[in-house]
Amino acid sequence: MKVIFTEYSVILIFFIISSLLSILLFFLSYLITPQKVDQEKISAYECGFNPFDDARSTFDVRFYLVAILFLIFDLEVSFLFPWSITLNKLPLFGFWSMIIFLIVLTVGFIYEWYKGALEWE
C-alpha cells in the first residue's frame, strides 16, 4: 500500500498545486482588471449583427465561408499532428500521401486567396 501511495503522491501534489494556482490566478485577474460595465460589453454578440432582430434579415455569406475555411485548416492540423509523431515509423507511401494531401490543401488555399475569399471589406 505504501508503494502505491508514493507512486501516486506526485500526481496528487501536482493536482493540488495546479488547483490552487488556477484559483489564485482567477481571483487575481478578477481583482486586478478594471470592472467597467457598459451596454456594449454586456450585449449579446453573434456574427456582427444583433441576435434579437428579425430572422428574415439578410445574412452575409462570408461568415459561413470563414467558418468553413477554419474547419478545413483546423482539420488539416489534426491530421498533421499524428502524422508528424509517427513519421519515422511510416512507410514511404504514408509520407507521400500526406504530401499530396498538403499540396491539395495548399492549391485550394491559393485559389481562395486568388478569388478574394479571404478579403474582408
TrEMBL record:
One term under GO cellular component: mitochondrial membrane
UniProt-annotated location(s): Membrane; Mitochondrion membrane
Catalytic activity: a ubiquinone + NADH + 5 H(+)(in) = a ubiquinol + NAD(+) + 4 H(+)(out)
Keywords from the named record: Electron transport, Membrane, Mitochondrion, NAD, Respiratory chain, Translocase, Transmembrane, Transmembrane helix, Transport, Ubiquinone
Top EC group: translocase
GO molecular function terms noted in the UniProt entry: NADH dehydrogenase (ubiquinone) activity; oxidoreductase activity, acting on NAD(P)H
Protein name: NADH-ubiquinone oxidoreductase chain 3
Source organism: Porolithon onkodes
